[in-house]
Amino acid sequence: MTDDRPVQPKASSYFANAAAGVMMSDVVEATVEHLRREAAIGAVPAAAEASDAIAAGYAAAADLIGAEVDEVAFVESGNRALAALIQSAALQPGDHVLVDRTCWGGTLHMLSSYPGVIVDVMPVDQHGRVDVDAAKAQAHPATRLVVLTWCPATCAIFNPAEAVGLLARDLGAFYIVDACQVAGQRSIDVRNLRCHGLAASGRKWLRGPRGTAMLYASREYLTTTQAFMADQFGQGRTDARRYETGGRTWPVASACPSRCAPRN
Fold first, then answer.
1. pTM score, whole prediction
2. What string of pLDDT tens digits covers the 264 residues of the chain?
3. Cα–Cα distance between 52 and 168 in angstroms, integer?
4. Helix extents (H) in the chain
5. Number of neighbouring beta carbons within 10 Å of residue 183
6. Cα-flanking dihedrals φ and ψ of residue 220, to 5°?
7. How many Cβ atoms from other residues are within 10 Å of residue 83's Cβ?
8. Spatial CB neighbours of 161, under 8 Å, sequence gap ≥ 6
9. What single-letter DSSP state applies at residue 64?
């Protein structure tokens, strides 16, 4: 007699980190425990109890990318982080934007929504990476923003992020890096990148929960742009258009006690 029972699969390796990594056991336990605490006492008291852990999270995120704590925010997704950074640049008709060939479709869609903004794709070398020298020929005085996908989800290239940062500096343009596929794979130092903004997903190579991401905005970017849809915790009451050191500009959770209170 044959055994018709289904064969149980053996343990296998997981290769889908570019979409979402497998959470580590302590991440799962911490997430579930906090949800249980919220169910027991409510979201606001549970957040207050977790204030030390939240503050430690901001410090760890800043340390991970070589930033200051007040340059980092936690948001819902890499898409949300990129949207906030790009929309804060307040692009106007006639502005010029450079992107890489592997730029995520959602980012291209955001940029295409700006009437009169010109978007050009930077040339690539024989390996498919951004050719920085050739890209210089595409730039002109109206180049206001450079957006680079450091490593795409669809192929194994790593674009020369530091060299593109030098190009953006020479052009006097803002520089935003999509590092969603890099954080957790390679070390990141935003000072070496010379970037004004950076987005990193929590769910991919960092193996955090879905619905988490990190946004970096340099103090220069925060003082020369207006944060897109900043809330009362992120912006000081004294001047809604200016960033104040020590404030959180883009955090999303209204009950997050780690944010600085508005100044009187």
1. 0.82
2. 555 666 555 557 888 887 888 888 888 999 999 999 999 999 999 999 999 998 999 999 999 999 999 899 998 888 889 999 999 998 999 999 999 999 988 899 889 999 999 999 999 999 999 999 999 987 888 999 999 999 998 888 999 999 999 999 999 999 999 999 898 889 999 999 999 999 999 888 788 888 889 999 999 998 888 776 565 455 543 344 444 433 445 444 332 323 333 333
3. 38
4. 25-41, 43-49, 51-65, 78-88, 105-112, 132-136, 161-171, 190-193, 219-224
5. 26
6. -60, -45
7. 19
8. 148, 150, 177, 193, 195
9. H
Between CA 257 and CA 50 the distance in angstroms is 9
Measured between its terminal Cα atoms, the distance across the chain in Å is 82
DSSP-assigned beta bridge partners for residue 97 = 119, 145
- Quote the tokens at residue 165: 């940062």
Q: Which amino acid is at 170?
A: D
φ/ψ region of 32 (left if φ > 0, alpha if ψ in -120 to 50, else beta) reads: alpha
